[in-house]
């Protein structure tokens, strides 16, 4: 079983080096790394050259901006039986690829699996599902993130490309949720996807406080989330329910005197509404 890893990258070097080192540490070696490079310089050339004799690397340039456009370039080149989409600042724990292959070989009924992430020291963010379960359109928001998705070839053959209006660098307001949109489209095709609580990848935790930078980043994320909910035709009751939960979080944070967190959640709900309206 061959795994194609599609890496969209721009502006990062040390983080890519960390990912490459984690791939070299994998005991399962039947994989290829397709690097879709959107940098204007050659910062990755020598770094990638140093790994070419260790595992298969395909390095291509993409002038088009945006993570979804880059992943679509990679999809045209990937020939693996399993497709995954590592972020350029994530890294894999030892044994991850062998675990993915073992699970998929043991469970041929599954079309894809997803996991969660920590920063390597056990810290995470978001509200992950508490146990392993099949994904549906309501729990998918708590059961996957782009770099934790592993799909069989038949899924990407059926679903096709990422929505290029979504994600970082798309040139729109919808700065996230392109992976969730892809999973929702996969579910509509009838594919069986499962979240595994013990499938853990690593990624920096971005929101360690609720400062202006965190609020700005969250606005882009939540706008994308609201938009993806809208374009995937959620029932009328679902979106207001998500907003009410966040509003309850605002009230709770204010009651505790945590005004930065209250502002963060306020920004979140406004951005999600903007995405839904858009």
From TrEMBL:
Keyword Transferase: yes
GO MF terms, alphabetically ordered: transferase activity
Pfam families from the UniProt entry: Glycos_transf_2 (PF00535)
Tagged with keyword Iron: no
Keyword set, alphabetical order: Transferase
Signal peptide positions on this chain: none
Domain of life: Bacteria
Domain Glycosyltransferase 2-like: residue ranges: 4-131
InterPro entries: Glyco_trans_2-like (IPR001173), Glycosyltransf_2 (IPR050834), Nucleotide-diphossugar_trans (IPR029044)
Protein name: Glycosyl transferase 2 family protein
């Amino acid at each position: 079983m061959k795994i194609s890893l599609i890496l969209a990258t721009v502006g990062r070097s040390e983080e890519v080096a960390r990912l490459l080192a984690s791939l070299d540490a994998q005991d399962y070696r039947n994989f290829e790394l397709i690097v879709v490079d959107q940098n204007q310089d050659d910062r990755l050339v020598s770094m990638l050259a140093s790994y070419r004799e260790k595992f298969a690397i395909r390095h291509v340039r993409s002038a088009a901006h945006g993570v979804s456009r880059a992943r679509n370039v990679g999809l045209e080149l990937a020939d693996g039986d399993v497709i995954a989409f590592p972020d350029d600042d994530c890294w894999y724990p030892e044994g991850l690829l062998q675990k993915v292959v073992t699970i998929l070989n043991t469970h041929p009924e599954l079309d894809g699996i997803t996991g969660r992430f920590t920063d390597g020291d056990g810290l995470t963010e978001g509200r992950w599902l508490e146990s392993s379960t099949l994904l549906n359109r309501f729990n998918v928001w708590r059961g996957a993130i782009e770099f934790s998705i592993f799909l069989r070839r038949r899924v990407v053959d059926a679903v096709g490309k990422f929505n290029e209006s979504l994600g970082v660098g798309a040139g729109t307001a919808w700065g996230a949720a392109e992976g969730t949109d892809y999973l929702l489209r996969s579910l509509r095709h009838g594919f069986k996807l499962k979240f595994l609580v013990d499938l853990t990848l690593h990624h920096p935790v971005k929101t360690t406080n609720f400062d202006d930078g965190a609020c700005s980043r969250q606005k882009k994320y939540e706008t994308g989330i609201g938009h993806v909910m809208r374009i995937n035709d959620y029932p009328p009751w679902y979106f207001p329910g998500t907003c009410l939960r966040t509003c309850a979080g605002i009230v709770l944070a204010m009651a505790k005197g945590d005004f930065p967190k209250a502002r963060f959640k306020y920004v979140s709900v406004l951005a999600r509404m903007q995405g839904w309206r858009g």
